[in-house]
Amino acid sequence: SKSEIGLLGLGTMGAALALNIADNGFDIAVYNRTARVTQDFKATAGDLAPRITATETLEDFVASLKSPRAIILMVPAGEAVDQQIAALRPLLDDNDLIIDAGNANFHDTNRRAEAAGDKPFLGIGVSGGEEGARFGPSIMGGGNKASWDRVAHILTAISAKHDGTPCATWMGEQGAGHFVKAVHNGIEYADMQMIAEVYGILRDGMGLDNAAIAAVFDRWNTGPLASYLIEISARVAEAKDTDTGRPLLDIITDAAGQKGTGRWTAIEAQHLGAPVPAIEAAVAARNLSAARDLRQTGEDIFGGAPQALNGALTVDQLEQALIAGKIICYAQGFTMISGASEQFGWNLPLPEIAKVWRAGCIIRSVMLDDMATALSEDPDKNLMFASTFAGNLKATHGALRAVVAQAALHGLAVPALSSGLAYFDTMRTHRGTANMLQGQRDYFGRHGFERLDREGKGFHGPWAN
Ligand code: NDP
């Protein structure tokens, strides 16, 4: 009998997703460019093998699917996706659905949706890594709603569940799903960076060893900061190298990798005029981390920066600061989503986005549950101003200020936390300083300014030029 869905690309993510689909009771046909991979996949599928049809040509793959067909592509983002769409389309009927489930740039997804015309096409963001793909990812769908509805029963079945609610939602037309996934990744960068900055203060400012740092993270993981990222930070901090027995963190090189999704989010935010400075700081921090030789030169010239805090901060203050920093960083991410929603006419469902991120994805946390509630009550507000989070920030921004100030005084670099604090202070200052910028711009370029005391635009200062 024919399969309900097809999946092309049995790499890390594709293989895990295919097993997840079979595990949820759906018959699935699979195809991979390298046929040996397909055979190995079927051979190692165990109990699930009877639900899996392994195919070795695209023709057999397409022929093994129930009509109207639905095919998931799980290949590297970029050219491979265009190649596979081009190879499949001639074999498909006009109402067969292609679903790109990789990490596509949403502009590409917009373009592919446009090129597909009336032929159904979805771009879905899948978060949670291999483990998520196998046992329940968070799924952010984009494209034609009717196409989503055709496969929603499969995508919700395989998704993560938060108290029984599936973490799989249609976000909007075209590239909306891939856009939301990208912002997720940007937030992930900032969340991780803030944790790393606090780790630096615990290590260099307070002199805690790795085991003590792991214990701090474990304790925080039972409170407001409870999250997958805090949990794994504890596991990383306590881990020992299997070869040498030394603490793993002491031998991991302090130079971060990146695949570019965080950078892309920061750039897109600039295009949208919806800035995400904490995410920008996190992207910059990864870039600067890679410049190890240059940092050695700086240390040789100026002396190493970090100094002991000698009791100037408490571990509790660090927890409070991280709570404040996290709220601010998510507020930026959601503001960016609002901005895109408006500019692209997507009508993105902010509360649903917070809900979809509550389980299955890397940034899952208890705080996202409160964010979902706050955004349900008022999706247009900056999250910092929603009553729950305004209350949290009133209670914690003093600690963030103390942490940033003491870090500055003791040479401990905290770029994301300090950027978050600057954003917070900016966003609670009605009388800002851009009057000076406007004066300067009018002075050198006659750009004109508005006045507080009169209606209208295009006023000028008394410059003689
Ligand atoms: P892998 O490198 O593990 O697998 C890539 C798969 O794509 C292989 O099956 C490969 O086939 C196939 N492939 C590569 N190029 C082509 C091509 N030109 N034509 C046809 N097939 C091709 O990648 P992942 O599974 O890690 O990633 C897949 C997608 O999922 C990417 O977009 C990635 O960004 C995204 N993603 C990955 C996550 C992760 O944690 N790894 C998390 C979330 C999303 P072959 O065996 O023949 O080489």
Automatic annotation (TrEMBL):
Annotated 6-phosphogluconate dehydrogenase C-terminal domain residues: 177-464
SUPFAM superfamilies xrefs: 6-phosphogluconate dehydrogenase C-terminal domain-like (SSF48179), NAD(P)-binding Rossmann-fold domains (SSF51735)
Active site: K181 (proton acceptor), E188 (proton donor)
Domain of life: Bacteria
Gene3D superfamilies: 6-Phosphogluconate Dehydrogenase, domain 3, N-(1-d-carboxylethyl)-l-norvaline Dehydrogenase, domain 2, NAD(P)-binding Rossmann-like Domain
EC nos: 1.1.1.44
Chain sites annotated for binding NADP(+): G9, L10, G11, T12, M13, G14, N32, R33, T34, V75, P76, A77, N103
Keywords of the record: Gluconate utilization, NADP, Oxidoreductase, Pentose shunt
Pathway: Carbohydrate degradation; pentose phosphate pathway; D-ribulose 5-phosphate from D-glucose 6-phosphate (oxidative stage): step 3/3
Record's catalysed reaction(s): 6-phospho-D-gluconate + NADP(+) = D-ribulose 5-phosphate + CO2 + NADPH
A single MF term (Gene Ontology): NADP binding
GO biological process, one term: D-gluconate metabolic process
Residues at which substrate binds: N103, S127, G128, G129, H184, N185, Y189, K259, R286, R441, H447
NCBIfam families for the chain: gnd, PRK09287.1
Similarity-based family: Belongs to the 6-phosphogluconate dehydrogenase family.
Function: Catalyzes the oxidative decarboxylation of 6-phosphogluconate to ribulose 5-phosphate and CO(2), with concomitant reduction of NADP to NADPH.
Subunit annotation: Homodimer.
Name the record gives this protein: 6-phosphogluconate dehydrogenase, decarboxylating
